[in-house]
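Exercise 3.2. Students should predict the tertiary structure of the chain below and write it as structure tokens, then compare their answer with the key that follows.

Predict this chain's 3D structure.
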Amino acid sequence: MKYEFTIIVPLYNEEENISRLEKELGDYLKIASKKTAVLFINDGSKDKSQELLEGICKNNEAFSFLQFEKNCGLSAAIKAGFDHVSTPLVGYIDADLQTSPQDFNLLLEHIDTFDLVTGVRANRKDAFVKNMSSKIANGIRRAFTNDGMDDTGCPLKVIKTEQAKRIPMFKGLHRFLPAMILLQHGKIIQIPVQHFPRMAGQAKFGLWNRLFGPFVDCFAYLWMKKKYINYQVAKKG
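Answer key:
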């Protein structure tokens, strides 16, 4: 069957979450508002994630995977997903399942009107330090980008693939996806989604790369904004 939407799932050492991913994503595919496929990006895991991934992909025709030779980071995993999908729409969700695949239907309701629809985590279930550092980082980013988004770190997004493939991805730029769509003169919106505590595995971002990293990346964004090439073909013969 022809798929309309591909969900990218970046993961690194998430063996404890693979069975939950199979169940929750499988359940979502049954009620998805668009015909949906899932692409797992194994970012050089050193545990049994790859072995388990290959097993669930054999059992689910809508599941597929890419395995990196070594760990490259979240931005690289998302870029690989953008590079390899062929559906008109692409989205992503974190492998920790602190957001629910079922909420993709909420985002998909708006994708005809907007080029990127991002979740904003309502009633976050993270620890105080993680919540506060995230709020500070988002405040700094908004000051630099004026994108109006409250929670660009929310790991639940839907993007029109044509626009996603035009984003010049660099390390850390996954936090700037709405701003990069605005550079294309695209339209963005945020929608409240559910948030849950992490049930298994370990968080991959600490206080340092949740605060200092985004601050430095803001200067990279300003450079790209100044140098960004954006054109539209008026006629072709």
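Discussion points: Helices lie at 18-31, 49-59, 74-84, 104-108, 128-145, 161-164, 177-183, 207-227. The radius of gyration is 17 Å.
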